[in-house]
Amino acid sequence: MSIQLIGTRASFCPLARDLSTLCQVPQDAPLMTGSGEVGVIGLGVMGRALGLNLADHGCRVVGFDQNAKRLATATGGDSPIAAAAEIEQLMAALEAPRVVLLLVPAGAPVDQVLDLLGPNLAAGDVVVDAGNSHYRDTQRRAQTLRAQGTTFLGVGVSGGEAGARHGPCIMAGGARSGWHQVEPLLGAVAARVGGRRCAALLGPDGAGHFTKMVHNGIEYADMQLISEIHHLLRHTAGLDDRAIAALLSSWNEGELQSYLLEISVDILRMLDAHTGQPMLDVIVDVAGHKGTGRWAAAEAIELGVPAPNLLAAVGARAVSAHPSARMALAKRDQRPSPFPEQAPARLHTDLESALLVGRLASFAQGFELLRAGDARHAWGLPLSEIAAIWQGGCIIRAKVLETIAAACAEGLDERGLLGHPAFAQQLADHLPALRRTVALAAAAGAPAPCLASSLAWVDGMHTAASSTTLLQAQRDYFGGHGIERVDREGRFHLDGSEA
Ligand code: 6PG
Q1: Quick check: is 219 catalytic?
Q2: CB of 224 closer than 6 A to ligand 1?
Q3: Of 116, 109, 128, residue with least CA distance to 84
Q4: Using one digit for the tens of pLDDT, what is the confidence trace for 285-332?
Q5: Where are the domains of the chain?
Q6: Least CB-packed of 30, 151, 314, 488 within 10 Å?
Q7: What span, in angstroms and rounded, lies between the C-alpha atoms of 491 and 481?
Q8: pLDDT for 258-280, tens place per residue?
Q9: 0.85 cut: is pTM over it?
Q10: How is domain 9-205 classified at the CATH fold level?
């Protein structure tokens, strides 16, 4: 593979303004406005895909990666991405003010790249962290770079490799002036739904990555819910994966329509290339994770937001990660018992409804987390716009977001989405099926933590008299923490004295 390394901008391309010849622009791709050029640092799966997408839209893309093999793969052959051997070369090849996208792993690697970039940055440059960084890191970095005259945007990009390549959902946070500089680039490559770009500035520093973190919390919960339903159908109801695919495919025609259900159907229809067995039969049942779902769950705890689905989804991955303990215990204990005899059609519609309520609960909890983050940081998060841009490009795109966008546009009171009539009606219609499903799973000994959490959360949020009166009394009994009384103002101890 031959790659041409660039020197300076002058030697990069004598026809730099002639973007269509340089970048193999597809006929229908709109050309960039503004400088129409960008540096991409980090040419792994996401960086390369986003770079190619930008190039498709007429953007001149210069890429750098510390890993020589990744650099060669992304820029070699007839790739429209030009290679820079060093960060200095990449910066010299771009016209000021420059736009640089970082697609490097979250955490220390982002700080390391920023350290290298620092001496090469000039006032007016915009650095965009398009990885899955923690929003607090983003706030810190934006503040540091602002002091040096550089705008730093934290931008959540969702959609995996295919999304980055053909149209992701883009959730930006940072200074509006910086967004105006990059919006022509990022807006052009984003997914579109009904002509609307799935890309928006959602608030100041950190707001974009916070929103992406919540997206991933919902993503974890929805993936777990679908997996629980599959597990019940396969191991408790005894269906094979082809039959389950047919069932889920029919569900995907209705209210449950979503990207995650669609890809689940595809996966269930796959056969292993080596053995010809159903794909899931050859996959180890231990879930990995990169941390964003855990951050969302931790943030919910930190902000006091009841989001048990997000916690249950992280917990389920943690349980899966102890296979030897599970296997040792399973040897001497039970396998799920089959569901009691009942008409399959009833079981299937119950599971469909259970999944719908679970999904509504996960989204509602996620939106409560957005609201709490917004209240804490005074960002002014546009909830309805978030629900709108989540309808395209991202992993959690789903039909239920139409209802959610409309509800958010009308405004949410203290009941959140649960208080919106359309949402409440769907819950009322489908909740009895979730009850039956959770009861069946429990009786069969089949773990369904996210379904069970959905039910407990819905019931908890509709309970006027919670179970915490005894708990409060216990806290005062052993810790003297005091109680509030229903019949008078102030704080008291159990013996009647004032606390
Ligand atoms: C997306 C995904 C993506 C996700 C990774 C890793 O929106 O495209 O959320 O950003 O972070 O797929 O997820 P895990 O934490 O499951 O490894």
Answers
A1: yes
A2: no
A3: 116
A4: 999 999 999 999 999 999 999 999 999 999 999 999 999 999 999 876
A5: 9-205, 213-461, 468-499
A6: 488
A7: 9
A8: 999 999 999 999 999 999 999 99
A9: yes
A10: Rossmann fold (3.40.50)
